[in-house]
Amino acid sequence: MTITFSTAAAASADDALHHEDAARGNIEAAQRAITALSAALSNAAGYDKILLRAAAGAGKSYALVRMVREALDHASCTRVAVTAFANKQVFPLAGELGKELGAPRVCLFVAAERLPDVPQDVLDHVSIATSTNDIPDTTAVVLGTSHKLGAIRQRKRFLDHLGPSANAKQPFDVLFVDEAWQLPLHRYTTVEDLAPLSVGVGDVGQLPPIDPGANPWRGDPGYNPYRAWPTAYEDAETTFVVDLPAVWRPTAAQLPLWRAFYGDWDRLDCVAAPGDRRVDLPAMTGPAAAVWDSVATGNPTLLEIDGLPDPEAADIDPPLLGVVEDLLEPLLEGGFTITSRRYDGVGSPLDEVRTNSASPAGNPLIVLLATRNQAVDDATAVVERLTEKYDLPDGVLLASTVDSWQGQTNAITVAIHPLSGADQLDEFNSAFGRLAVTCTRATHGLLMVARSGLDRLLGDAPARPGTPLGEPGSRSLPRQTHQRILATFSRVTLDLASNKE
């Protein structure tokens, strides 16, 4: 068994801003969006759409809460709606807005069968309504999924119960859409007429909830109702667009990877400075020590393994997961500690928080990510074995599909590269959003695992066009973009062939 290393080929992020200097860019961008919002409400600008685009981990929900508060302070705004595709996006926002504005003013409009899913911390800070008539007359913010707010005749029920808002025609003055690039156009059209002005906030690299391979509207090949709705309006004269130029989630060492995904932005900075995030490891030897030492630096690490038995399929690979399990064992047996620098609302550094794997708190510590359900079933079996063997508490080790984990955050990601074992790039394994979500969940360390041969696959793949920086959805990355992303990783090669000698 031999193990070799190579450093990342991509340029470093020595020019990056950190702490308050980085966060200031987001504050200023959000202020430009607020200024446009105020101008639209005052009829001083002809905007009907405002789009605040963000990279993963940019603090977009914080910006949305700020914009809701500013809108309600405007004389021409008395009531707003907040929507998203899924309840898991709506619930946290409801809690944050309830804490900011008070329960009498914030109403979570939720289906009765979903009430048991609402966290207690949200219930404590909002009003709850399962039918329109339950919405209190003190309500200034109504939150619900696009399916709930966009139900048939729901606009009329809002008008009948609440009356028109300040605009005198529609039930709300502003419609805010969280994770806007995850909401397909056909869902947005069901809620668009609730307010004269829509504000979309979201990560342009997310996977949309519906991702068909073909345009279902055959009569008009230029129109696809399943695409992310902001892409239909970004170039319109009545749309104001601004980017959040800083991310709060990654380590400083991960910033070149983030920049590889958002390469068309003017700049992208990182609130976390070098040294703000640490992983303290137990004593280990052999390949596990080498691999985890690399991950603990904060640099994205790609582990390529040679000499494995053949997989069942490219995306069903028990031998590969067996190596991952072997690497996790000494880490979990010895225990590890995650250290995180906290920041105030403007990015100024505060104290450090230490979380030990013996008593985890907050976001999960390690998450195993794979693309296909069968692969995640195998990863779940790994999690169950290791959890039982080392009596791990909840929150130390989880497994998930990439699609299910979008919008979530964890300390260390261990992911199977979507191209591992593939013989060609196809629409699924080279999807932009799927790879972006895989690479941007971690706050402390990213370990990408693959069978050897990624460089050969990308070198031999036929050149073809792609839209890596256009709309998320039914599109795939060209090989050149994959190569640019891989260039930001530290590379570790593990050759198991010597075990067979």
From TrEMBL:
InterPro entries documented for this protein: P-loop_NTPase
Superkingdom of origin: Bacteria
Residue span of region Disordered: 460-481
Database matches in Gene3D superfamilies: P-loop containing nucleotide triphosphate hydrolases
Protein name in the entry: AAA domain-containing protein
Organism: Pseudonocardia bannensis
